[in-house]
């Protein structure tokens, strides 16, 4: 039995993760921690899953790592600086998985986008989410843009053509590693992303839709079961999916 603690247990993802862990024969939910609860309850766990808030994840992650726990981080907003700090704190054999998106289709969408990116002049990312989401762009969009940018740099592809010289309201969106990223927030949505690629005479659109938060749970359980077998810091679910 793997003992699991959930941080952000009262939230949309945390409550879904608690139910998924509760329903798994090989996992035991030993701690549900949310705002105002003592984090010490997590010390009974082998693995902690964090679904809290971009403003809380750094402190939680450092605390869990310093407590010697394996950690699966689903919360968005984990930047390079925090990743470097965590690497320096890890004990031998300790595993941390930072997963921008647990959806299997989302993992594939990111990989397909990176694969396609070098063949097109233009590429832009459009992420679409429910209006209660705290951060923009999403962690998935940020990761996708980073992967696309790395693939284009490796292939020696320059920036997409763009004649815009006047954009006082920021209509062209944000740029992440040089890739334009646009964020939509809309009632009725859950989590969606399109990667648009174009060259003279053709376009390719790669789209993924999470229609319910249950779509993330197979990935969450895979990460919980696999984190102890992946010592060190790993970003993305790819390493656990045997994709190559
Ligand atoms: N990796 C993935 O596949 C996915 C990642 N996410 C990410 O997960 C995160 C949570 O999303 P979601 O569940 O929708 O958000 P919610 O706001 O529904 O849930 C977050 C929960 O965490 C609580 N919380 C905030 N700070 C702390 C803290 N310091 N300690 C313990 N609990 C805390 C919140 O309490 P309160 O409301 O009182 O502040 C709330 O109950 C986001 O960053 C989101 O982007 C979401 C979906 C999939
Ligand atoms: O807040 C959400 O809902 C989601 N957050 C993650 C992100 O920021 O990418 C994953 C997914 O998009 C849902």
From TrEMBL:
Its principal location? cytoplasm
Pathway named in the protein's UniProt entry: Amino-acid biosynthesis; L-lysine biosynthesis via DAP pathway; (S)-tetrahydrodipicolinate from L-aspartate: step 4/4
Q: Which domain of life is it from?
A: Bacteria
Cited Gene3D superfamilies: Dihydrodipicolinate Reductase, domain 2, NAD(P)-binding Rossmann-like Domain
Major enzyme class: oxidoreductase
Q: Which PROSITE patterns match?
A: DAPB
Which compartment or compartments is the protein found in? Answer: Cytoplasm
Question: Which CDD domains does the record match to this protein?
Answer: DHDPR_N
A single GO molecular-function term is: 4-hydroxy-tetrahydrodipicolinate reductase
Region: Disordered; residue ranges are 155-176
- Which of UniProt's keywords are assigned here? Amino-acid biosynthesis, Cytoplasm, Diaminopimelate biosynthesis, Lysine biosynthesis, NAD, NADP, Oxidoreductase
Could you tell me what this protein is called? 4-hydroxy-tetrahydrodipicolinate reductase
